[in-house]
Predict the structure.
Amino acid sequence: MDDRLLLIAIGALVGVCSGLAAVALNTGLHFMAGALSGLRTHWWLFVLPGIGAMLSSLFLEKGVREGAGHGVPEVVYSVSRHGGLLRLRSAFSRLISSCLTIGSGGSAGPEAPVVMSGASIGSNVAQFFSLNERQRIALVGCGSAGALAAIFNAPIAGLVFTIEIIVGEWSARNIVPIAVASVAGAQVSRLLQGKQIAFTHLRFEVGITATLAAIGLAVVTALVSIALTRALRGSHHFSGKFPLPFWVRAFLGGCVVGAIGLMLPEVLGEGYHSIRQMVEGSFAPGLGLVLLLVAAKIAATSFTLGWGGSGGIFAPCLVIGSFSGLMYHRFLEMLWPGLSLVNEGCFALLGMAGLVSGILQAPLTGIFLIVEITGGYETILPLILVSALSTTICHAWEPASFYFRDLVEKGQYLRPRTDAKVLADLSIAELVETDCKTVPRSMRLGEFIRVIQQSHRNYFPVVDPETGQFEGMIHLDDIRPYLFDPLLYETVFLEQIMETDVETVDIHDELSGVLARMDAKGLFSMPVVSADRFIGMISKATLLDKYRNELMVQTLH
Amino acid sequence: MEMQMLHIFRNTPLGREMLLQSAYFCKQLEILPLIYIPDYIKFLMYFENDVVQVDLDASYLKAPDSAKAHASEIVQGMGLPQPRFFAPKHFTASTLPDLPVDFDFMCCPRSISDLSSKIGLGYIGPRVRRIVKSARFPVLIPSAVYKPWTSIAVLFGGSSNAVKALRLGIRLSRRCGLPLDVFSHPESRSRQDYENILQEAGLKEDFDNYVRTWQIFENRSFAENMYEIPHDALLVLGAYGHGLIKELLFGSTMEVVQTVTPNSMLIVGPNYRAVI
């Protein structure tokens, strides 16, 4: 069977499995919402999100020993560094933990967990069939797309999100199986949950005024996106300063969310109910309260995810974005009461797109997601405008998106066919040149000149002949002053002219770091030393050869 | 290039025995021990087609202040130079380091992740099995107590992995200068079949030159015949070389061997690539 057809067939299978995972999570959330709805009237139940977050963190750490995280950065890390290898336990762990967090009222979304779950399904199916790295990455994408397509009933958004965020490479080889998986995931969702869209489709007549007003909304959503990004990171760092067990932290964070929810219940859970009201134009609270809700939802999301709860930021982005859009619309109407703007529901949609695009710095995902979950293209012009501008403004303030920032800071954000990726796929061991002639420090200059005559190299490592310990280097330039004075041949020893303060490379060093050191010091080659023993030399010339080979491998396959 | 053996050190008496075994192995083969003293209870190993999460026994995190000094003392006491200590550079999550898999050997106790009470004969933990299945390097599974080995024994059943094990055994014998004994338990093969396998694998000449004795067990069960293996031999054998179905039906040879022999074992998995 042709490789591409095989990948498409397996991709469809992965899409179906991911779709089932998404439906399972959705069903779980509905069940928990139904089971706990009667209890919400009790004031003491502000501890409910705390209990949910605590159980969720205990399940992740002690039950399945996963290690925390939002999911998507781990998938991207795995694709970047390890060819999409993911643990099997990730296929179900985040579904259960996020169900506990969100179902009990925590402010988070189910999308990142299902993406993690779908990606893990794809990765493990690829491992089962012993597929190669590129095929495995494509199946990780298939799982992610199928899951997102199923949870939102939005196949195009699933495809675009996967290509923009997870795979990072627009190539036909990836797009075709991922598109098929996306369709399979969405179809599973439609079969099991009905052909429903998340929010009511309303016809909005968008005029030039609304389109121009969207520019201002882009600025607002960009600022809110930056605030949310920083609040999430700040909350995570702040919670880490408390010397408390992880589950106590998660409990406390959840209790704060519960306390906020006592006064402002709109911040609890996914918050899709509020979005529906806003899109339909029936959300009653005034401008001041909406402004408060924006701040409260940011705080609730930060306390949920930053303190140890499990879930994603997609749904909170949609809620905060719709609050922001509504707030902006009402603010404009307050300033210019006669302004004939489109219905405020349209601005709620635009706000969602602005926030998703800003936080993820993925404008196409924002545009297609909103188009698909609202079922209409009428708002496409301002949608594009808001998404593009919000992404650009956010990028100026926060150069990396929420998902990528940690990876970028650690140098682990490696996209295919980029310099960083090529360098990361090469190791010092592959580049080391071992045909070097070592010399002892006790060697006389005359003898050394005879060694040089038989060698084609310019560098000569000085090594202790008894212990094998690396002691220094001699470069041809170092002996130039003595070359033309034969009297010195028998009187000068290498230890007198060798360089002892030599920059060395460890066999396990990262190549990108070594290259940076070479550039900074103007070096063309460096000795590789391991456990004080000289291993060989690494040079830019060899690096260039291997770099080209690796680039060709990455480009051709 | 110098070869390296990864050893995950636990600062306990049991861990000391394990490190003594690793250090002895390194000394015999003139390779460098690379010691990882874990800061976290778990780590990941990304192999070519599998990712293995190892959840360590809590004893691996005991007494971190003295761990480095103890490990150095044990290794240097064996006459080896100051060992290198490995510090992870990459993390999948903040408390989940990634360990590279490009070592030449790795030392695993029979179980790396379950309770210490299970470490001993009769139990190889699931993580160690997965490491053996996925690794390109051979895995040293030492006996519970340090015991120097003075010869090398290879179990040669004729499978593709057994051929790899035999090749490794010959190389080890050549490198250490220790005698090599080969043991075969024919199921449906004759001596001539084995010789044909050796011929096809290009091992006939080395086999004749390096193998001290070759015992082909004719009678008794496989487990009973294990008594013939010298008590002070390093046992080299291939694992998971018979295919999934046969192993599901009849069990793995490795599992049988490790339940009846106390020897240190060097296991060659299906993905092993020769390094020496």
Q: What stands out?
A: Residues 188 and 194 of chain B are 11 Å apart (CA to CA). The two ends of chain B are 11 Å apart (CA to CA). Chain B touches chain A at residues 1-2, 32, 42, 44, 46-47, 49-51, 53, 55, 81-82, 84, 89-96, 98, 100, 102 (CB under 8 Å).
